[in-house]
């Protein structure tokens, strides 16, 4: 996958970074831990501007976040509750669970959205409750930009500073990201197995 990412960035430049970071948020197994350090390395050897690399990474991330937000916003909480009452096992939630999540998200969404953008897997997932529970779009994008800006800038700057050793970022961050996503998937499977209608799971 690294070779494909390298070829796309070299061919498309900043547009390639936007596209890849968009895809990373739509399809999480595409790793930002490779994309942004690689782009930062390109800035270190003069092919790109580091601020523009960070801006491109942030733009792609926000487009990806907005993609899931708009889908979730269209579904809405009422439709989700009806679906959960019929097929709740597959989202491991009942209608009562969704009501509890909504109360929690309304209280804590201000810090949950930016924090989630620092955690692999959750970067994609956090857009869904934000859309389902109708967080205002401007607020969602601002909070997403805060978290995503820190993450994309940190990875790009690491690639910039490490120069030819930028692959060291993937060596350390990549396995951690994979472990987190595997843990999230295992937790989902456990929830599916343990799910009981009526909110007891």
Q: What does this protein structure show overall?
A:
With 201 residues, this protein is mainly α. The protein has one domain. It contains nine helices and no strands.
Query: How many discrete structural domains?
Result: 1
Number of strands: 0
Beta-strand residue fraction: under 5%
Using only CA atoms, what is the Rg?
18 Å
- Element pattern in H and E: HHHHHHHHH
Topology of this structure?
Elements: H1 2-12, H2 14-26, H3 32-44, H4 50-87, H5 95-116, H6 122-125, H7 127-132, H8 137-162, H9 167-194
Features:
mainly alpha; 201 residues
Summary of the model, kept short:
With 201 residues, the protein is mainly α. The chain has helices at residues 2-12, 14-26, 32-44, 50-87, 95-116, 122-125, 127-132, 137-162, 167-194.
